[in-house]
UniProtKB/TrEMBL annotation:
Gene3D superfamilies: 3.90.1200.10, Phosphorylase Kinase, domain 1 (3.30.200.20). InterPro entries: Aminoglycoside_PTrfase (IPR002575), Kinase-like_dom_sf (IPR011009), Methylthioribose_kinase (IPR009212). One of its GO terms (biological process) is methionine biosynthetic process. Signal peptide: none annotated. One of its GO terms (molecular function) is S-methyl-5-thioribose kinase activity. Homodimer. Belongs to the methylthioribose kinase family. Residues 174-295 form the Aminoglycoside phosphotransferase domain. Its EC number is 2.7.1.100. Keywords: ATP-binding, Kinase, Nucleotide-binding, Transferase. This is S-methyl-5-thioribose kinase. Pfam families: APH.
Amino acid sequence: MAFSEFRPLDEKSLIEYIKATPVLSNKVGRNYDDLKIKEVGDGNLNFVYIVVGSAGSFVIKQALPYIRCIGESWPMTKERAYFEALALKVHGQLCPEHVPEVYHFDRTMSLIGMRYLEPPHIILRKGLIAGIKYPYLAEHMSTYMSKTLFYTSLLYRTTTEHKRDVAEFCGNVELCRLTEQVIFSDPYKVSQYNHWTSPYLDRDAEAVREDNVLKLEIAELKSKFCERAQALIHGDLHTGSVMVTSDSTQVIDPEFAFYGPMGFDVGAFIGNLFLAYFAQDGHADSFDDRRSYKEWILRMTEGTWNLFHKKFTAFWDKHKDGPGEAYLPAIYNNPELQQIVQEKFMKDLFHDTLGFGAAKMIRRIVGVAHVEDFESIKDDSKRAECERKALDFAKLLLKERRRFQSINEVVSAIPA
């Protein structure tokens, strides 16, 4: 422990912290004269510093005792850093090719030191806004989600192991409650934090608050989110939590991690791809109408689910006689029954994915925290037009998710 009590670091005190922390000072060859430190925390919650020296580099992420984008009027536990470090380590062991390595964690300082994802890595959301194609995106994200979700579930683990880890992550209650509020509550009621592209979407926001069927469906999803400890989920797996190059995909920022419904992770990612799709018309210009790029996003969306389904069920088939206690081999003891069980599980997971994805879309349009995909569209009326199309599709998806049998059907339901 470098410092004996918590205090927010600035660039000057961070150097002192690095000097006092061997694993970090060794990373930069104990050479502090040429260190370049840049604060890049453009998120809602934390300080993030990039530290680059002649001998090496790393990222320092420090949690604050409040929500950074709002201020001290909205307190928030610093303990989220503990759960983020823990999730990075667990997911990193299961999928090291898509999770940055953790070098150091300091619980007192609520601080994580981890691999710096050097340029040309950029946030996926920014790449999608810029119209960049990533040929391995569906391949990589399906690998990450299938490995982390399958191998932390009862399909692979014993109930004893599972309950031990569920109990550990139950401590991340404040961030779970934040999710409950901003996704499953605020958009459906009058809330001081809600905002939207006014006046264009005033009636649309009101319609969400008055839609009884929508409220019944969101209540069911909230119940699953709160009560179903299915796997160790990232908890905030949107396109702003993924860094990419043409051939690298790295998942970051799992501070919302806990044992929850698998579909929440898969849905969050797919829902954000849909948001990127609907935002494209707002980024089109006379040189590029973005039509081919929109088609690419939909191919990536289909590919993500289809590859996830293929890989997840392959892991299941491989370990069907293993230690997992969800479906004991002595009971599910013939191929026909095993297939029935697997098909039902994956169908339910698919419908959960669509529901949670739709809920994530709705909150990004009429809730507290919006997405740069839309926010970077300068023309208010154009932005509102894109957002309305996304909102209408999300409402359809949330209400009618059970009628879809494949991701291709979902994509076909998007109005031309």
